[in-house]
């Protein structure tokens, strides 16, 4: 059997005296979709940020496709290209058009010619449903459209794994589904994904596994069906009861 795509092993992460990640062990197989959920401050964003090395770890190892995360330099830039990241705030370059936002990375990092990068970018923008907005600036698009551009921009780097950190939390309710639909499509196409979200509908539709975090630890892991209907830990039961009544 092929080795897992992402292996997080015995990872500890401190911010000064504060320990944000404790004894994290997590493996994600190729094509697997893992939803990470848990209360605010439980370390979900920190986990995502350590996986593409926006944050260093105190100890432990993280490997992507068999390679340990490089500390810096060109090797790190290449690794970053393999790990796509979509944040709650879309982080598009406001002075660049939608098309330029998507072609920038492929031209600079993958070394594509402009015409080739634009062809790929237009295909990706079509795939996320904003192909007709290519020449606009980000501010001219709705939040849902901007987030779909952010997904296209990450995909343009041909990542092996996509990380999503609460990608719909900043969106108006009517825009949430258009972003989740794109993510469900990606999951069905076989993309390996780690998704921090409290959208249970997405988890049920697309996730192979739910990982529940609290206080910097992975408290339990189960299939979505199992987790949402029969959570084992008191922390998860408490968290889910609050999620449902809101
Ligand atoms: N740069 C930082 N410096 C110090 N503490 C941080 C930093 N980033 C996050 N933390 C702390 O680490 C904990 C986990 O944060 P985070 O990973 O953002 O949680 P979550 O995404 O689950 O809400 C929180 O207590 C937070 O205050
Ligand atoms: Mg967070």
From TrEMBL:
Keywords from the UniProt entry: Amino-acid transport, ATP-binding, Cell membrane, Membrane, Nucleotide-binding, Transport
ABC transporter domain location: 6-240
One GO cellular component term: plasma membrane
Catalytic reactions of this protein: a polar amino acid(out) + ATP + H2O = a polar amino acid(in) + ADP + phosphate + H(+)
Signal sequence, renumbered to the chain: none
Subcellular location, principal: membrane
Topology class, membrane: Peripheral membrane protein
Entry EC number(s): 7.4.2.1
UniProt-listed Pfam families: ABC_tran (PF00005)
Source organism superkingdom: Bacteria
Family to which the UniProt record says this protein belongs: Belongs to the ABC transporter superfamily.
Protein name: ABC-type polar-amino-acid transporter
């Amino acid at each position: 059997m092929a080795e897992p795509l992402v292996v997080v092993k015995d990872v500890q992460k401190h911010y000064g005296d504060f320990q944000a990640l404790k004894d994290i062990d997590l493996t994600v197989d190729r094509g697997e979709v893992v939803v990470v959920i848990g209360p605010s401050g439980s370390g979900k964003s920190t986990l995502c940020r350590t996986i593409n090395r926006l944050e260093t770890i105190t100890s432990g190892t993280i490997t992507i496709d068999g390679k340990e995360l490089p500390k810096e330099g060109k090797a790190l830039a290449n690794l970053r290209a393999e790990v796509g990241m979509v944040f709650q705030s879309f982080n598009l370059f406001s002075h660049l058009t939608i098309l330029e936002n998507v072609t920038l990375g492929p031209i600079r990092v993958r070394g594509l010619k402009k015409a080739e990068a634009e062809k790929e970018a237009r295909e990706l923008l079509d795939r996320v449903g904003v192909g007709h907005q290519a020449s606009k600036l980000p501010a001219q698009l709705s939040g849902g459209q901007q987030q779909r551009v952010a997904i296209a921009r990450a995909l343009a780097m041909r990542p092996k794994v996509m990380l999503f950190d609460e990608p719909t939390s900043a969106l108006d309710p009517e825009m949430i589904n258009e972003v989740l639909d794109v993510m469900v499509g990606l999951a069905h196409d076989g993309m390996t994904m780690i998704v921090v979200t409290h959208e249970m509908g997405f988890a049920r539709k697309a996730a192979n596994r739910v990982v529940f975090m609290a206080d910097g630890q992975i408290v339990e892991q189960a299939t979505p069906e199992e987790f949402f209907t029969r959570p084992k830990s008191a922390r998860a039961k408490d968290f889910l009861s609050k999620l449902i009544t809101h």
